[in-house]
Amino acid sequence: MIYIVIAIVTFLALILYGTMSRRRIYKEIDRLEAWKMQIMNRPLTEEISKVKGMAMIGETEEKFEMWRQEWDEMVTAHLPNLEENLFDAEEYTDKYRFKKARTILMNVNQSLDRMDTRIKEITSEINELVTSEELNREEIVEAKEKLQETKKYYLTHIRAFGQTAPIFDKELDEIKSLFETFESLTVQGSHLEARQRLVESLNRISVCKTKMQGVPELLVILQSDIPNSLKELSAGFTEMEEQGYVLHHIGIEKEISSLKELNEQALNKVYELELDSAQKDLDETVQKMDQLYEMLENEVHSKQYVLKEREVFFSNIEDLKDRIETLKHETQIVSSTYLIEQNEADMQKKIEKLFHKLQSRFFIIQESIDEKRESFSVIREMMEEMQKQMEELQRSQKVYEEMLHNLRKDELDTKQNLKELRKKLLEARRMVQKSNLPGLPEHYLITIGKAEEYIIEVSKKLDEKPLEMSDVSYVLNKAHDAVNEGYEETSQMIENAYLAEKLIQYGNRFRSSYRSVSIRLIEAEIAFRNYQYEDALQIAASAIESVQPGILKEMEINLKSHV
């Protein structure tokens, strides 16, 4: 039974495959048939007939015959053969020979595609030929007018062209010859080739006219302006040397010789009508001349700067000398009292060394000016560099001066801090006296004693000669910590004693009712009499909190509200 089902399914699948394949192939046949009819109905004959209105000779006649023959072969041979191929493909499809049918259809599709492409090419070639003929008729008149205008311009300005005139004359003759070739090709019916000659002649007329307009200006610049500028440059250089400028670093003779060669090179290029290259050489020449002028102008400005700043530099050097002497004297005074760090002492030596170096450099600058050893631009650079070093020296000097000032300032600040620490420690003692405590715990006396010792040590350090402020600052910080600790401990101790006493008094009301409270309060009283106020507070608080929770918090709030 299962084999029968498989056979039926297979049979049905084959029928479905055959039906679908035939449908797809018939659809492709219809598409190719429509494409074939579209090609056959193309108005190529009408396109070809456009050429008949032209003179049927030479290239025109040859192309006309070639296009007509190709189209006749397509219509009478190729397309009918393709029609038969489509019939064959349809028969193969009916016989279920799908592979053979597809091969035929693929070949038909390729043939139609080739014909379609060739028809488009023929149409384009026809349009190009017809258009070329029309444009040639229209543009030849304009081209001749442009040539005539260019000849007229040439004759009018021939004297301005100099050695280039024969080249222009030859170019105009060659363009004229192109026109004659154009006429000959047109008569022969070679409109496309004639078109090429006409376009070439128009381009050459345009280029020739452009060069005619550019040559005179270039000749004037290269033959007159540049040589005159070089003479002025050389004369200006000589005049500046006579005025005392040192200009040997410029090498003007070599530079001018090089510029003359470059100018001559550009001129020869103009004679050969290589105007773009000649313009580049001219631009380079002008640029280098400008650089030379800038160097000479820089010498003038540098001289003004040097002569103006010379006295300013001398005044600054003298001022620095006085300030360094003053600084040296102040260092000697301060070093008798303070211990100056090695790196700070080295700074003072470095300042003196740098000043002597600047002083020597200034003497060299003075000699260079007086004896004309260097150009003013070089001297200016030396002075500008020296100015930077002077500014650096002034900054270092200022830092060192501030360091000396800070040494004294640190001493005064330390004495003021010491005064405030003593005042704070005295305030702690007064707080203890006002509290009427029965006694003071040992650890508190140790803390206060340590604070007093540090204060005494700071005072001793301040009396040492030389004064080492780093040691003073270290001990001062220790004193700060000790005094603050003592003051905080004083406040906490008094508060603990006050709260412990109040809690013990408050707890007396619970002694008769709670034996455990009575025992704990006796322990608190013993701790209080032994100056253990914190322990007394904790014992009393734990006893009373057991019968009246929150009492300690309430008393702390009341205490803070009365402070």
Automatic annotation (TrEMBL):
Pfam families recorded for this chain?
Answer: EzrA
Q: Where in the cell is it found?
A: Cell membrane
Q: Which biological process terms from the Gene Ontology are attached to this UniProt entry?
A: division septum assembly; septin ring assembly
Q: Which InterPro entries match?
A: EzrA, LRR_dom_sf
Q: What is its main location?
A: membrane
Q: Carries keyword Cell division?
A: yes
Residues folding into a coiled coil are 105-150, 256-330, 376-431
Pull the Extracellular topological domain ranges from the record.
1-2
In this entry, the parts of the chain located on the Cytoplasmic side of the membrane are 22-563
The record's annotation in Gene3D superfamilies points to:
Ribonuclease Inhibitor
* Topology term for the membrane: Single-pass membrane protein
Top-level lineage group: Bacteria
Family designation? Belongs to the EzrA family.
NCBIfam families in the cross-refs: PRK04778.1-7
The protein here is known as Septation ring formation regulator EzrA
Q: Which organism is it from?
A: Fictibacillus phosphorivorans
Q: What is the lineage of its organism?
A: Bacteria, Bacillati, Bacillota, Bacilli, Bacillales
